[in-house]
Amino acid sequence: MINLRGIAAFLTLLGTAAQGHAAGVTIGVIAPQGGPLGLLGAQIAAGAGFEIQQSGNTLVAVNETCEDNSGAAVADALVNAKVQIAIGFLCSETLEGALPKLKDANIPAITVSARSRILMEDALKNGWPLFRLAPADGTEAAKIIEVILKDWAADPIALIEDGTIHGRELTEAVRNALEQNGLKPVFTDTYRPGQEQQIALVRRLKRAGATRVFVGGDRSDVAVMARDAKAENIPLSILGGDAMRAADQPLPLTPRVRAVALPEYALLPEGGPAADALRAKGTEPEGYVLPSLAAALIAGRAAEAAAAAGKPLRETLVGTTFQTPIGAVAFTGAHELSQNPYRLLEWRGNGFFPPAAPTQ
């Protein structure tokens, strides 16, 4: 776990060092330093701070309140500190106010969190220097559709969702894509979430002939369904979305249940060395830690490459591939990730990992 007081002290130490001796690339790190979002801000600070210190660059920490109309002050702080690039930005509210001033100052911004499609559309229309390390709206559904069409097209498919806005919209996107490809689910339904058992539901799935089930709902509900299907000896291959990345309680998830989700980068080969180095310093590489480390790495290397080539920094960010602890990262001309970061993963009792073998 990340200690908020320790992170605050760490940022203060780096800030003091930066004032006395500016080194390398000056990178702004924008994240909440307290309040309800303080823990997420501490994750951003931990990952970015670790990389900036390792690379010998200079960190400028700016508090993010995520309040409406707070972005202009954040931008002013970055401009006054003469940063070359800024990362973090947990909230769209910050970016909306900051980006016009960052454009005028030629300071690119890399967000590790904000997913708003409208925000990026406005950025491109207005020439704001926003780059998104977070997945954009719609990319989760796009990956789920890709997986189902690739692995399940020949099988009887069921689509069920929990009635929430996200669950319903996600499942509807999948259904529309299946129909556009000439596939019709054998069963669709809205289930009642938060139940202690779902035996009636899994029996209905069996009567419908479904063998593959996509669930637009929470991990706890999927765990109940998987347990009850096993108890009833009903063979169901279950796939969930990113909501599956949650605590494995109160009922543990059955092994081999799959999810299309953002990976736990610390469990992957590319993230392992950085995760070990962070743990050696007392920081658990959870949440935004490794993505923020990657953002700081990209910021530093892009700024160095731009200076060496005599090119604007934002031009260097487009099309360049950066090797990071979250994998190879490149931004498109639309300032989005060139590859969908969602992956097909399988639960193995202690984490979600890439499937060991193709879907049976």
Q: Could you explain the architecture of this structure?
A:
This protein has about 350 residues and is of the alpha/beta class. About 45% of the residues lie in helices and about 15% in strands. It is elongated, with a radius of gyration of 22 Å. The chain contains twelve helices and 14 strands. The strands form three sheets. A seven-stranded mixed beta sheet has the order 7-6-8-9-10-13-14, sandwiched between helices. It has helices spanning about 5-20, 40-55, 70-80, 90-105, 115-125, 140-150, 165-180, 200-210, 220-230, 270-280, 290-310, 315; strands at about 25-30, 60-65, 85-90, 110, 130, 155-160, 185-190, 210-215, 235-240, 260, 320-325, 325-330, 345, 350-355. This is Branched-chain amino acid ABC transporter substrate-binding protein.
Short description:
This protein is an alpha/beta fold and 360 residues long. 43% of the residues lie in helices and 16% in strands.
- The number of helical segments is 12
CATH architecture label name of the largest domain: 3-Layer(aba) Sandwich
What is the rounded distance between the termini?
38 Å
β-strand percent reads 15-25%
Instruction: Calculate Rg over CA atoms.
Output: 22 Å
Q: How many domains, as an integer?
A: 2
Count the beta strands.
14
Query: What's the arrangement of strands in the largest beta sheet?
Result: 7-6-8-9-10-13-14
What series of H and E elements makes up the topology?
HEHEHEHEHEHEHEHEHEEHHHEEEE
Broad CATH class of the largest domain? Alpha Beta
Helical content (DSSP H or I, runs of 4+): 40-55%
**Mean pLDDT figure:** 92
Low-confidence stretches: 4-10, 12-21
Task: Assign the CATH topology of the largest domain.
Answer: Rossmann fold
The assigned structural class equals alpha/beta
Shape: elongated
The largest sheet is: 7 strands, mixed
CATH superfamily of the largest domain: Response regulator
Family: Belongs to the leucine-binding protein family.
Protein name: Branched-chain amino acid ABC transporter substrate-binding protein
Organism: Rhizobium esperanzae
Signal peptide: 1-22
